[in-house]
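Kindly review this protein for my students:
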Amino acid sequence: MITQETLEKIATTASSFDALDEAAVASLRASWQDLRFTVCNDDDMPARLPPVLRREKFNLYLVNGSEHCLSLTDDPTQAIGVVLAEVDA
């Protein structure tokens, strides 16, 4: 489960980085060791599921791991990770 408060903290931390690169992801993983983090371009995200949190430079999506394969979810009780999807300026 990922709370709204945790999502806000992740977004604030991610916003402080110059870029969402490997160093940024490593820092997020160190701060939230129980969560999975992935970075991609927002254009690669399916339109059927809106982000759970929007920021100027990226959107956050939730990852569900309750079944055999990972998938996106809008249910924070099922979430085990976060996708940081960079928005092109």
